[in-house]
Amino acid sequence: MAEILDIVLINPGDRKQVYQGLGAELAAIEPPFWVAVLASYLRQEGFRVAIIDANAENIAPVETARRAAALNPLLTCVIVYGSQPSASTQNMTIAGAICRALSTQKAGRIAMGGLHPSALPERTLRDESVDFVIEGEGPDSLKALLEELAAPNPDLSAVPGLWYREGTTLRSNPRAPLISSLDSYLPIAAWDLLPMNVYRAHNWHCFDDLEHRSPYGAIYTSLGCPYNCVFCCINAPFGKPGIRYRSPERVLEEIALLVDSYGVRNLKIVDELFVLKEQHYMAIVEGIIARKLDLNIWAYARVDTVKTANLARMKQAGINWLALGIESADPSVRDGADKRMQARDIKALVRSIQEHGIRVIGNFIFGLPDDTLETMEETLQLAMDLNCEFINFYCAMAYPGSKLYEMAVHEGWELPAEWHDFSQHGYDMLPLPTHALSAREVIRFRDDAFHRYFANPAYLDMVELKFGSRVKGHLVEMSKTRLKRKY
Question: Could you tell me the fold of the domain covering 5-172?
């Protein structure tokens, strides 16, 4: 018999189901940083670890299960995250299929963890073919679970954040405390366990060089978010709003490794809010400049956290794109602290960012609870006035772990029938209705708005001026793909 491996970590995904026709070439294939960090942490604790990135390799559940079984693990754990917080739930359908396939193979005990399982741990344990569900961040829970499974008389009650069965009874243990030392628990990721040749950046991220979207890296420099927007589920694994940081030194060490060992130039900073704590993000910026790393970076920011005085150095460090959560043109519709921001403030900031040579990807949401056709049209017009180099138009969805999900359950609003129907690009996607509009009206507006934006002559002229005729042609071809919708 082959030597027993302690744990196989699986990153699930089904690009065709989630993205329809957009998944083949346009969508990014992102390295699963959190999976790789868990692997690295467990490896430094002395465990034997392997990773199967089923999403990146685009392999079916049966093949994924066969590969896991061939490794003869004590535990197989499917980690359900995604390229953004909302992507966890949409990956639950394929994650469940992988677990069912694992249950027919000899792949050890089966666990599931990640954002969605942390938001709905009891339901996940009831619904899925798993022995365990990990609620919370995961490192301490997985370490303790592996130790107990290897013991002569396992005591599952000693494993923090664990949901499990005792006969027909469901049991749960209190979550592990939040990680206090991110440098200890988030070591440099186990990049050597990933198929690094497969990953590719978003099309827009590489508008300056569409032919070279690979290699691609993605890292966290912090965990969590201090805000509590009703539509966001980012804090589900953490239990509350808040943000903790890796040291700039550790982050810079990891970026340098990606550059030197894997030839990475295209880099995503996965943090929900990278541009927040000036002392943190500017230390990373200055370190990149000092090391003369040649990078093409994108990162998230809020309209009210960007300091224009820092933009020149950020650009020099290779931060070529900032993703701004603008959400809505109407302050009464917009969520959270952004209510203080008026359209004129947003326009001034976007112009300042662009004047420093940094491109803006604007994120907008249609179908927030107070939206009407008129307010959604105002949001579309704001997007067109801003003329960002790229945009994302989303529908408001009740993602598990968000306040909108709690509201939807309490009010009895209709939710998607299957987990993959939470995908913004899926055929069966079902957003929330607003106080004034049906879900069908919200979807129709969003899809029409997407095509209006990308067919706008002012936008296409700007793209051609900044990026050339090839990128303009690429976007024209992209906008020919119209998503098929059930509703």
Answer: Rossmann fold (3.40.50)
